[in-house]
Amino acid sequence: MLILVTLLKWGLPALILVAPLVASAWFPPARRVLMFAIPIPLFVIAAAGAWLWLNQESAVLRAVQVRVKEMVAGAEIAALEAKLEAEEKISAARGQVAAEANRRLMAEIDARVNLSRRLTAIQTENEILNDDLADLLSRPVAGDCAVDPDLLGRLRAR
After folding, report:
1. For 144, which DSSP code?
2. What is the pLDDT of residues 42-70, one digit of tens each?
3. Which of 14, 75, 87, 143 is deepest in the core (most CB within 10 A)?
């Protein structure tokens, strides 16, 4: 099973590395061929070649990993820029809401000032009218309930 997984994962280099072990385990006479008359056994040379091929593949994997990291970093930067843009929009909307609230507050203050002035004017006019009414009430009314000529003149003047 380990041999099959190794072959599926690493392909030809794994076959080169595993073949001598499998061949010598299943066919003991194959050991003579594999231990050729070179001071270094053939499977060691094959293993070194496979290691170089795997190392090249790992360099490719490292390059892919570097590229993936760059892409992830780019995506994170894009996400942070989008988040910053959204926060700027929210801040601008909050500024507009604050400006509108300030405008409404100023309008309310102006309305209250105008209302206070009108109230003061109405109170002053009310006091004048109350004084006129008190003045009218302080004069005696004629016995026959006729209008006094002086009062009649003042009423016509108004």
Report:
1. T
2. 777 788 777 777 776 677 777 888 898 99
3. 14
DSSP 10-49: H-HHHHHHHHHHHHHHH-TTHHHHHS-SSSS-HHHHHHHH
Instruction: Give CA–CA dist 102/97, Å, rounded.
Output: 9
Q: How many domains would you assign to the chain?
A: 1
Are 27 and 35 within 8 A, CB to CB?
no
Domain, as residue range, for 39: 2-116
Residue 7 lies in a domain: yes
| Residues near 106 by beta carbon (within 8 Å), at least 6 away in sequence | none
Structure tokens at 118: 């009108």
Whole-number Å distance between alpha carbons of 4 and 95: 67
CB-CB contact of 11 with 4 (8 Å)? no
CB distance 54 to 17 below 8 Å? no
Q: Is the entire prediction scored with pTM above 0.70?
A: no
